[in-house]
Amino acid sequence: MVGKDKAVRNDSVISHVNGRQEPPNHTNGRGSDDFDFHNVPPMSSVSSEKGSGMSGAIFNLVTTVIGAGIMALPATMKVLGLIAGVVFIFLMGIISEISLELLVRFTHQCKATSYGEVVEHALGKPARIVSEVFIILNNAGVLLVYLIIMGDVMSGSPKHAGVLEQWFGNGFWDDRRIVSLILLIVFLAPLCALSKIDSLSMTSAASVVLAVLFVVIACVITFIMLAKGKIDSPRLIPEFGSKAAVLDLLVVIPIMSNAYVCHFNVQPIYNELENRSPERMNKVGRWTTVICVLIYWLTAVAGYLLFGKDTEADVLTNFDKPLPVKGSEALNYIVRVGYICHLILVFPVIHFSLRQTVDALAFKGKPPLTKSKGRCLGLTCAILIVVYLASVLIPSIWTAFKFTGATTAVSLGFVFPSLIALRLSRHGPEGLSSRETVLSWLMLIMAIIVGIVGVVGNIYGLQS
Fold first, then answer.
1. Which domain of life is it from (predicted)?
2. Is-contact 245 238, C-beta < 8 A?
3. What is the pTM of this model?
């Protein structure tokens, strides 16, 4: 099989050298496992209209990555310590970018237009169904987190005062269910009703600006407090001295690995990229990784230094109390309201991928959603209703979020991309280099270990 693959690649190289494009020669004894990538028809139609530029694609991908999970990074820094936390954020960014470029390469090679399609080409129909179910569970869980956080920050919760309560006193706005419903109808539904992801480029850019605003304010406050000597000495390395500390480490690992998962939106963004090519999409991925690593570093370090051992799992809840700096009350409002606006603008980008996946499973063979406004609006309404009802019924979803981070997010970000690369490289015109093969295996093993460790840690935490 290895010799046959080398022959295929050599034939392709010879064709380019001779100045003509010819399909590679295959022996008559080719097994049914071999896949002719030169004659793969697209599994669904892709619009030929002018797409989004590089900046729009970068903003959309950054928006997919940076969501409510960024608020948990200061708490992970509290567990890992400053040195290990900074290193982990960087390493996870590099690993995620490697998996992203492998996914882009083989998405282009087999002409897939969705995450599920490239999984089907590599691993078969059952694996596609599993991946699409994972996307639905992951994205629905993310939207649920967003809606609950927006409701809690605006209306308040038992642990902290809400923005509306602090502004207007007690009233109907103290009820998270009412506030969430108003946010859903007035802000989220109109954005989610858009049928193309490049229509969200401007909102994505605004959401990135708001995320940067949060980071800048947090860093400025941290710098002022450092200058005044009001920052306690931070932990530099993880603590292993107790069962509780080890359990915290087990929970933190999947949260950190979840921070960069955006792979389910790669195909829609790539499909609508102007003059698309793997090279251009890789530039989008690399810029996205650089931006996210910088934002994550600043957020995690500033948040942890500000609140130290009192850092909450959602650092936004720490901003309801005055800080020992001038104008902290106004800054606290800006941080909370600004980040709620950020989540409002991120919500439709995640919803887009969820809607596409549900449509692929429920309405296979139907025209694309861009050609069927009725089906698009119907799916949008159904998804928003389900997410809202779940947010009403589930008071706290952090445990569920940790489970999805250890299962669906790790699978979508690392397990499936590594399996796709290892599988399709054996049968396609482009194989993996020896270094890429080793990296793919290491990424697969790492993802499985992180998933198992995360699930075990969460189960043990529930029992204790």
1. Eukaryota
2. yes
3. 0.76
